[in-house]
Amino acid sequence: MFQPNLSHQQKSFFGFESSLPEKLLKALHKSEEYSFYEIIFRNIDEKKFSVLYSDKASRPNAPVNCLVAALILKSKYNWTYEQLFKNLSFNLLTKTALGLDSLADIPFDDATIFNFQNRLLSYEVKTGENLLETVFDNLTQEQIKKLKLKTNIQRIDSVMASSNIRSYSRLQLLIEVLIRLWRILDAEDKKLFQSKFSNYVVQSSGQYIYKMQSVELPREITQIAEIYQFCQENILSKYQETSFYQIFERIYTEHFTVFENKIEVKPKEALGSSCLQSPDDLDSTFRDKRGESFRGQLINVTETCSKENPINLISDVAVSRNNVDDGDVLNDRIDIIIDKTPDLVEIHTDGGYGNSRNDLKFEEYCITHVQTAVRGRQCEVAIEIKQTSEGAYNVKCPMQNADSVISGNKYKCLFDKEICNNCQYAGKCPAVQRKACRTYFFKHEDYLRNKRNRNLLAIPIERRELRSNVEATIHEFACRMKAHKLKVRTAFKTRLFAFTVAIGINFGRIFRYKASNSSFKNLLNLVFVQIVKEHSIFLIFRINFKFSQGYLSILNG
Prior knowledge:
Among the domains are: 7-129, no CATH class; 170-270, no CATH class; 384-444, no CATH class; 517-556. The chain has helices at residues 16-19, 22-29, 32-39, 64-76, 81-90, 92-97, 110-127, 131-147, 170-184, 187-192, 194-201, 205-210, 217-234, 244-255, 326-340, 356-365, 417-421, 444-458, 470-478, 491-534, 537-543, 545-556, and strands at residues 153-162, 256-259, 262-265, 285-289, 292-304, 314-321, 346-349, 368-371, 384-389, 392-396, 401-407, 410-415, 432-433, 438-442. The protein has 22 helices and 14 strands. The protein is flat, with a radius of gyration of 31 Å. A hairpin with a 2-residue loop joins β9 and β10. The model is unreliable at 536-547 (pLDDT under 50). 48% of the residues lie in helices and 15% in strands.
């Protein structure tokens, strides 16, 4: 049964705060953890999580705001679960962050926090909604509103998040799955099929392939294929209710094909990047980027970047398969980002986010897409396409320009042949040589791409470097992963990591901003007090009236 946690709103008379000396109490109230309690913990909407619990009268749940806040702290400080519980038990600052007022207060045990995550996963599978994403969105929207941040200009980048799985070769993966199939067989089946598995189950998959030579691999994979077919036809149907059934079925269909009742091994080239990477993680995909191999997920991060903002916050986080192009991820998120920040008019990305589908969506929303780099081969002759009216364009090359005319489902521009013949760029020109003239064909999508490629130079100089600072945000995610590898597995756990880290990053920026602002106000206080000491009230009124007004406006604003 769901029950909100309101105990933190009324401090105990015998709590540890009441026994602290005044100096330590002041230090506690200035601490990052106390600010976490004020900014994050108290603003977690527990009611959103009521759907995870029974509506019948039963034992109440563990405090949801404590569970969620603990997961955020764990990601923020990159703790293990052991470190989390150690700090919950003995660290007064951690207790303060979770609204606890007693040394004896332990709001949940290790089993409870794991069960809570399982409930979150089950609910996400059932509804498609990740409740921690809802927490991130609610907190961020409120923070942006309170700080009066502008969201009209934003930037986006991505980071690889590899799953905590072993890197298997193809043969080792096939053997590993056979070994795990053997483990779930009952005693009777193990006795019946001992001869089929005996070569593989006496050692680990890694030990089995360790002494094998490369010339032996084709023969070994053929033998493995025959065992797989035997298992599929004679064993597996008995274990359809087990979680392992899905793993074996997927491996079987991805690596083998049956033709005229004979099993054949698919060539290596036929295996896509979405094929199963490990029996421990069904979600991981493969991607090779700049010579590095990654098996896991991709985290895309969007944040505000207006120069008028005192600080900038992460506004959107998305976790996807890592073999999906950045541009496709952005295409799926554009509507969501617009829904969160409807005043968006300019977004900064690197070259990986540009494609024709995004160009059309950005045109629909009147958003300027600024790329700091352009992907793909560049035309050696500068061609500039401008739209003069709906369905009409003017195309300019280094020597001349011409208006477009419709040609079927395309547009074409006819360039003066004499000028073209004397042009130094004639050998590299993308326009097609015809008898009467040179003709340049294009579509509306080509105009949008051409416009996107010129957007960087069309904006003021001070905004051309806005994208670069998103690298620091990406580093804040990457530094919590050793060599881009998470401590967890599966897409759900990656999302859990991404949302909690994003909440922690935003909180850290807000805390530092408020702390620096507070220091400035303290400095003004000292200056003001010094003036009072050195001058009479009359002189203050006459000489420092304007200073006092400015001082008060800063304190109030």
